[in-house]
C-alpha cells in the first residue's frame, strides 16, 4: 500500500480510536461490485446483464464484449452503436495482448477542405450534422473479427439479446430518459431518427416508457444471419448510401465494401512496476497516458497526496507537454509516421521533468500549438472472465446520437466522427480541439482519437481494466483512475468517482470537477500562476475492474474478492456486475 500522508494519519487514528473498521471510516464511494468468476462493467445495466449471461454460459471475455457491443447499440443509443466505430484492447490469460481498430474511415470522396467554404473558412455544423459528417462505420466488422478470431460462441448467440431488446423494447430508467431529452431537438431534425427516438407527439420518451426499435431489430437480425456482408455489401449499405446521396453526403458503396478492421500491436509501457497496455495510433490515448505516466514516475505522488497543490502542479505540467505532442504529432499510422518510440522513451520524460519549474506554472504559449475538448458521448466497458482474459472496449458515435441521422428502414444511427479530423489547422472542432496537419482529412484515413481502452498488469497477471468516454479528457480520466489506485491507495470505485482535473495545453487552464480541490489548494495553485476553471459539471464515465481486491491495500493483505468492478457512481444507468 502506498505510504502517503493520508495513510500515515489513518494509521495513527486507528491506534487512537479503535472504534470502526478503516474501510467504513474512509469509504468515499459505494462499495465496488464483487465477483469470483467474471465481471462486466458497462454504461447501461441491461448491457451488463447481457455480458454476464454470456460469461455464465461459457463465453469468454471477447464473446461478452461482442454481445455487450451489440446490446449497447440498442439500449444506449447515444453512444452504443453499429453505425460508428471503436477500439478493443485484449489481454489474454497467457499475458499476450492485441488491439482491434474498428474506428471509422474517411469516405473515398473525402477531401482535406471538404468542410471549408470558398474563402477557406469552416462551414458551421458541416462536420457535425447530417450525412457529410459520417465516417465509414466499423463496429460490425470489428465485433465480427473479434468473435471469429478470439471468441467461442456463435454470432447468433451473441446477437440474440440485442435483437430481443430492439424487437420487444426495453423500459427506460432515469439515465436513459435523460439522454433522449437532451438530444430531442437534434433528433427531431431527421424524420427517420425522430420516428424512432421521439414519441408521435414529438416529445422524448420518459422514465418507465418502453423504447421499441423494429428496424434496428431487422438490421441486427440480417447481420446475425448473414454476417458482415449484410452490413457492408447488402441492403444496409445500399440504404445508407442512398440516404447519403439524397441528403448531401458522399458515402458510396465501395466505402463499405473496402472497410477493413486493423489488428495492431497495443502501446505498452511501465509505471512503477505495473505494465500498461493501451491504444496505439490512430488513438493518441495509449501514447499520451504513457507519456504522462513516464513524467509522473519521477515524482513521489503517493507522498505528495491526492489533490494537493504539489501533485496537481506536476500532473498539469506533464499533461501540458503531452497534449502538445498529441495535437501536433499524431495521426493515422497508415498516413503518418508517428514518433511512438520517442514519446514513450523514459529519457524523453526526464527531459520534460527537467523543464518543469518546481514552483511555477508553465506557460502554454511557450510550447507548440494545440487544443482542448470534451465529449461525454462515447462509451467504455470493461470485462474479465474466469480464465483471466481481460477486454477493454471504447466505442463511439462521436457526438451524442452521432450525426443525428438514420437511413430509412435501417434503424441505425450514424456517427459524426469526421469532426475528429483537422478541418483546418488552428481551427477548433466541436470540442475545441485545435489540431495539425498530421490529422488532416484524406480518403480512407481514420481521424485521431483519444479513446484509451487500457489493461494494467502486475507480475504477469491482470491488475486493472479501465477506460472512459470524455473526448480529449478520456486520456486524463483514465490516467487519474490508474494513479488513484496505484499512488493514492483508493479502491476502484473511489478511484473512478474521485473529482478530476484536466489540462491540455490550450486554453491554458486547469479544469477542475466540482469539489475537486479545496479553496486553500486553489489559492496555492493560483499563486503558482495557474488559471483554474472550476466546472459546474462532472465529465466522463470511467468503467473499471481491479483484480485481487478492491484496493491495493486489500490486494496486499489478501482475501479480497477476485474481481472488483466499478462504474462512475454519478452515471445513472450504468452497472458493474460480477458473478
Ligand atoms: N470521438 C472521440 C474520440 O475518438 O476521441
Automatic annotation (TrEMBL):
Organism superkingdom: Bacteria
Record GO terms (molecular function): glutathione hydrolase activity; leukotriene C4 gamma-glutamyl transferase activity
Keyword Translocase recorded: no
Chain residues that bind L-glutamate: 103, 396-398, 420, 449-450, 471
PTM annotation: Cleaved by autocatalysis into a large and a small subunit.
InterPro entries: GGT_bact, GGT_CS, GGT_lsub, GGT_peptidase, GGT_ssub_C, Ntn_hydrolases_N
Keywords: Acyltransferase, Glutathione biosynthesis, Hydrolase, Signal, Transferase, Zymogen
Pathway assigned in UniProt: Sulfur metabolism; glutathione metabolism
Signal peptide boundaries: 1-27
PANTHER family in the cross-refs: GLUTATHIONE HYDROLASE (PTHR43199), GLUTATHIONE HYDROLASE PROENZYME (PTHR43199:SF1)
Assembly: This enzyme consists of two polypeptide chains, which are synthesized in precursor form from a single polypeptide.
Protein name: Glutathione hydrolase proenzyme
Top-level taxonomy: Bacteria, Pseudomonadati, Pseudomonadota, Alphaproteobacteria, Hyphomicrobiales
